[in-house]
Fold this sequence. Notes:
Layout: H1 4-7, H2 10-16, H3 34-46, E1 50-54, E2 64-69, E3 72-78, E4 84-88, E5 109-110, E6 117-118, E7 124-126, E8 150-156, E9 159-163, H4 171-174, H5 176-181, E10 190-200, H6 204-212, H7 217-220, H8 222-227, E11 233-237, E12 241-246, H9 251-254, E13 273-278, E14 282-286, E15 290-300, E16 303-313, H10 323-350, H11 367-381
Antiparallel strand pairs: 1-9, 2-3, 3-4, 4-8, 5-6, 6-7, 8-9, 10-16, 11-12, 12-13, 13-14, 14-15, 15-16
Helix pairs in contact: 6-11
Amino acid sequence: MARVGDILTPAAIEAINRPTAEAICLPNAAYTSPEFLEAERTALFRERWTFAALGAQIPDPGDALPVTVSGLPILVLRDQKGGIRAFHNVCRHRGTQLVTEPQKRRPKLVCRYHSWTYELDGRLALTPCFNGPEDHSSPSIDRSRMGIEPVRAETWNDLVFVNISGNAPPLVEHMKPLTKRWAKYDLAQLRHGYSCEFDLAANWKLAVENFLESYHLPFAHPTLNTTSRMEAHLSVVEDLFLGQASTNYVPGTAGHSDLPRFPGLSEAEQRVADYPTVLPNLMFGLHPDYLFLFSVEPVAPERTKETFHFYFVGQRALSSEFAPARGKVVELWTKTNLEDIGVVQGMQVGRRSPGYHDAHFSPYHETTTHEFQRRVANALANRA
């Protein structure tokens, strides 16, 4: 087993912190080591705000959604007052996973093992037969201390984030740079239209790194490159987010030019597409006529769950009139991601080879990839 300190040696930390043209990529073991992944879960996924779910996935009181965040079972639900809460998804009696499938409009949460029952605010409500076949009392325990454990949860637009450590600043402050960047877009008009999942046989960082650069577009994505050419992309590096911005996105070429668009955008702004990544696990694609979210959940060092969510502008955009155009959007990004999966899984295979080492970044195309790796390495090194 490779310890994190054996992977992120002082020499490796020095090399990743050089200017982009001189920096050396993270060592192979950073993409294959279980110990390295667990350190990432602690330093990145549990300390920071991490995307967990959509409000649209739990629209009604009593709706509950089991998710996995940083390898932990988490439950996101909407309480009786319409508020969104999150809990560790385990019964306090014997530790059974409390909710295993999405639930709709449940008045309470009932464990399938011994039917311990919880209110939607997490309080322990009932302990059936705990003190005997007909005795539901529990004099030996303090019920006020045996509710399911809460997890800090806050929302930004329709996006639900959790902070497992509880140490992060308020989410509204955390997301303020992106709120400011997108001030001209009325995000309140967005309506959830479609979601899908992919299984990736590769480390989560490779999925993010692939999203961060446009260098590969003409070689891996000839279709996408016709609607958003590599030459039209700019790299963006900010404290909150990293990514790409396209200054000449062409909805007509992509086949969905008739979709409703955000109001108030200039002609030039209607050609802009923005692709920021907010660490640790959320990537955005904001276009004049839709938004997609691309999230990753590390399942194992060499396996990642990918989820896409698509939003469209206004309720009318979800009507049957625009079904073909919405389908074109989903088709484009499904095809693009399947193309990405092939090359990203190929990179994972390469991380097992001694023939891959001392790799360099393109100083023109890969400043974002370098900065991502640098932030991951430094976050782990600072906790070592």
